Amino acid sequence: MENIALIESFSEFKDDKLIDRVTLMAILEDVFRNALKKKYGEDDNFDIIVNPDKGDLEIWRNRVVVADGEVEDSNREISLTQARKIEPDFEVGEDVSEEVKLADLGRRAILALRQNLISKIHEHDNTNIYKQFKDLEGEIYTAEVHHIRHRAIILLDDEGNEIVLPKDRQIPSDFFRKGENVRGIIESVELKGNKPTIIMSRTAPGFLEKLFEQEIPEVFDGLITIKKVVRVPGEKAKVAVDSYDDRIDPVGACVGMKGSRIHSIVRELGNENIDVINFTNNEQLFITRALSPAKITSIKMNEEAKTAEVMLKPEEVSKAIGRGGHNIRLAGQLTGYEIDVYREGVEEDVELKEFTDEIEDWVIAEFSKIGLDTAKAVLEQDVDDLVRRTDLEEETIRDVMAVLRSEFEE
Length: 410
Description:
The chain contains 16 helices and 15 strands. By secondary structure, it is α+β, with helices and mostly antiparallel strands. A hairpin with a 3-residue loop joins strand 5 (140-148) and strand 6 (152-156). The chain is elongated and about 120 Å long.
């Protein structure tokens, strides 16, 4: 009973860790063998009998009976006199099994046993958590906000596992309160000092892809395939979809009537603007679709260099470039081509870099950031829109336009 009582005291935290009895007993045996090695130098002549149903554990030391005065290894040999104290009819050469009580190991050894057991159980627990979440990498997961820090939000799931949502994996418009549920994908799981670090992301393209799987039955069933996803988190995304069934319109199925199907995804992503595009192996047609909503007049492609020169009517240029240059940048990422935009019927345009005598380089760079590299490209824009899209003051923009306008008036 002594052993049983002590084992029960060791396992008092078992239920908190949700570790099953069989696993606990296996860990106990390993811990006790380590303790025996420390006390006796070896453990291979010991039998440890574990009964997981009763929670019982017995330790037996096996030794050979030798004549009195001939004991050379006290761990493996026992004198005839000592053996006969256990059983009076033992003879030299026979095997003796003697039960070892936990108290025989000493108080310090028992305290060390307990600490070692706790450590082993934590290690087992952490290994299980690591394996569990490693299998969930790339999958959507929901957890509750537990603590809000400057650089990350700490989440807890229903089992009390800690998940980290770093600031750079949050959508810019994200705002969470303590106790609120958060969805994202498990981006990575690493063991750091035997403790699993679980990272969640809401900005990864995979999160948008998994939302499509959750919200659109045809995607979940495999009738529609997502070929590629590119994003500027919280701003704009482009999703190329395809179907091997000609009866299914993949874009229509994903968007739904008046956007009904995609609405919940857009709301989850902070009103991110999502363009759903029909995938095609025809690269020219794919580029044309990727630059939507702009209507393209013609394309000149270099398939080896992966470049495309796109001709558009002047009023379509701003649509192709998009707010902050997001549309043309995402179209390039989606198709794998570097796309340059040209205005149809504009031969007398002048590149902005030709005006460095009158316009500072950093100002020209601000226009280039949003895809405006020529004089007429800037002059076609609305001043208020340029103020929103660049870091330039209204007065600076008007001064630049005056300089550019004078070039054509001459």
